[in-house]
Amino acid sequence: MTIFLILAPYGAYTFLMLVTSAKVSVFAASAICLATVAIDVAQGRSVKILAAGSAIVFAAIGLYLALRGPTLGTLGVKLSVDVGIFVISLGSMLLRRPFTLQYAVESVPAETAAMPGFLYANYVITGAWTGAALLMAAANLVLLYVPGLPLWSSLAVAFAARNSAIYFTKWYPEYRQIKYGTPAAALPNAR
To answer: How far apart are CA 159 and CA 86, in angstroms?
Structure first.
């Protein structure tokens, strides 16, 4: 369920980009991010770096489009979103608070969160998501500067990067449990 709430704004944004304007898409995604923040607060959980940062990224792009008009173009909007998510993800690691840590701490017992490899594992998983965001941004950048490439190539890279990060998020806790004996519950719930 956690992974669904994390990815819901991006899924809605991606779908809406196919059927409506970029401005509507990013504002809707921002609203969904704010809704996930409200759900966390209502359930007594912390405000997540990823959800709050994504709400800001989507809203900022939407405000830019509202004030400047559609000068950015669809690829420019996609690139802006990917770069924004990359900055949030990398920034969370540079600030020594990998964004997955907030989700993980709330879903495991305190003794599990205190284990030595717990923080490291969250850096690794956040790194996988940072790499995925970088790949998606690079695919959109290439498509922007090499207009002859088919649009599906960027979509394929985004699909593969995102799904690889999801798979890794599910796989890595099991790997750590087998290799180091770390309980499977030591990492964020990716189900």
So the answer is: 16
